[in-house]
Amino acid sequence: MVQTIETQNLTLSYGDSIIIDELDLEIPKGEITVFIGGNGCGKSTLLRSIARLLKPKSGAVLLEGKAISKMSTKDVAKQMAILPQTPVAPEGLTVLQLVKQGRYPYQTWLKQWTEEDEKQVTNALKATGLEELKDRPVDSLSGGQRQRAWIAMTLAQDTDIVLLDEPTTYLDMTHQIEILDLLFELNEKEQRTIVMVLHDLNLACRYADNIVAIKDQKIYAQGKPEIVINCSLVRNVFGMECEIITDPLLGTPLCIPYGKGRCILKKAGTMIGS
Amino acid sequence: MSEYRGFRIFKGKVSFLIDKRATVILTILLLLAAVIFLWSTGLGDMKISPLTVLKVLFGGGTDMEQLVIHDFRLPRIIVALMVGMSLAVAGGILQGMIRNPLASPDVLGITGGAAVAVVSFLAFFSDQNHALTVSIKWMPLAAFAGAGIIALLVYFLAWKNGVSPIRLVLIGIGISALMQALTTLMMIVGPIYRASEANIWITGTVYGSNWTNVAILVPWTVIFLLIAFVMARNINVLELGDETATGVGGRVQRYRFLLLLISTALIGSSVAFAGGIGFVGLMAPHMARRLVGSAFGALLPVSAFIGGILVMLADLIGRTLFSPLEIPAGVFTAGIGAPYFIYLLFKTRNA
């Protein structure tokens, strides 16, 4: 396993409260890695610190073996792109203008639109299916289109690694699948390493090559979803009882939570609490 | 709908993406500014046709026309143009940097700092007979110093592991209120006719501008406007928010500080020579945004011309409409600006 991102003894905190405690993590190259965990477990914080948006309290994040804190932020930006959670585009900014910002690390004030810039921006628009919408203001687009525009911006950055913090939040199911399919294809076709935080455990199982479950400031488990996801993991990480079945379409694990609800099965009474 | 054309010269060593629509709008505004400049120079107690104005500018015309244009009108109109451009660009930078269309030089307390400096100057340097003990020529310097000190104070008070836009605004509003209180206090404490002098200054006027003012203001403004235009792509990135800006390799804190310095330099020189002309820094960039969108490469130059036009017009109205009475230009910018501000607030509430 070749790793591209590595954390060493990484401790993250907000003020005095420790969020992540002495974490050693390796993220494999060319795969989709998904961070999962309960609300407030620090999965987003971890992603943000890998993307140098948050300074660690101690420890280091290494990018291809080099400490990220010692690299120039532009050099990092040429290797790793980050899409923060629910970014907001300035009023009236067009899709093209937004996607062009992805070229920022390659620009100087005299070189703002090289042939390479144009090629990368065109490719990013094509990959996200936004060619037709490139002159529309981002704030006039639908949620799914808007998220694709932001993803296009990170693609224009032409990096091997793309980090995404909950890229499907606030999207309906159709658009969640659309975005994740897009990322999956990028990984398949261009071997980009994708690291993201997802809320939905089932979607995580479906798309991830590698799942990192976070609990109590530590990694609870890491590996292929079909190997690491089981009832006891869900119980310990999410504090929820469930049954794990196989997705009838893809064969990946599917988590069915226990709890209340309208039961219309003939053999009622198998649920916990009934 | 915008159309773009790539622009590359010197074997790709220089390349830009040109927004065609913005280029057209910019050209129109440039011409409009030139027309208003000439027209305004001709208007006043003595009416001179724009053609004669052109003639006078190139050394022709009668002695009387020469005197009126060269000594009375040109300096103040040039100052009005420079001040309008400076305030508009400074406002545009602040709005992008703080990511809020309501940000302006007034909101951050920078103009307030200049006002306090000016009233203090007038109060402290008056002797028993209410005569100034130092030359009035130092007043612009006091205003500039006031603006600079307050901008830095706001910046350092807002510092907490870097400066976040929201802290900058909140501290700015607080300091701004404090500055207003201090200004009022100094005006009450100082001699009464100084208070009225201070009041005219606070409202903002280009009355009494001379060629010495022009000689200082023009190079200063041109240099900082050019720096601002060069920085446009960094403002573009800052406007995406700190996280995205960092993600694409922007040095957020460094640029935020540099941009605050540039806007302070522009605001400082404006208040020094024209007092607290309000609302231009708020309105001009907003109108520009309507015309050319949010990309700062186009937004800043377009704002600059709108600002210049606004202040030139405000001054023109102020010195001709109620002639021989002079109304400070700031009255008219505020006259259009205040309703515009309310309209903006109203619109943001519904957004």
UniProtKB/TrEMBL annotation, chain A:
The lineage of its organism: Bacteria, Bacillati, Bacillota, Bacilli, Bacillales. GO terms for cellular component: plasma membrane. Signal peptide: none annotated. GO terms for molecular function: ATP binding; ATP hydrolysis activity. Its main location: membrane. Pfam families: ABC_tran (PF00005). The keyword ATP-binding applies. It comes from Peribacillus loiseleuriae. This is ABC transporter. It is found in: Cell membrane. It is a peripheral membrane protein. The keyword Iron applies. It comes from the Bacteria.
From TrEMBL, chain B:
Pfam families: FecCD (PF01032). Keywords: Cell membrane, Membrane, Transmembrane, Transmembrane helix, Transport. It is found in: Cell membrane. One of its GO terms (cellular component) is plasma membrane. InterPro entries: ABC_BtuC-like, ABC_transptr_permease_BtuC. The keyword ATP-binding does not apply. One of its GO terms (biological process) is siderophore-iron import into cell. The keyword Disulfide bond does not apply. It is a multi-pass membrane protein. CDD domains: TM_ABC_iron-siderophores_like (cd06550). Belongs to the binding-protein-dependent transport system permease family. FecCD subfamily. This is Iron ABC transporter permease. It comes from Peribacillus loiseleuriae. The lineage of its organism: Bacteria, Bacillati, Bacillota, Bacilli, Bacillales.
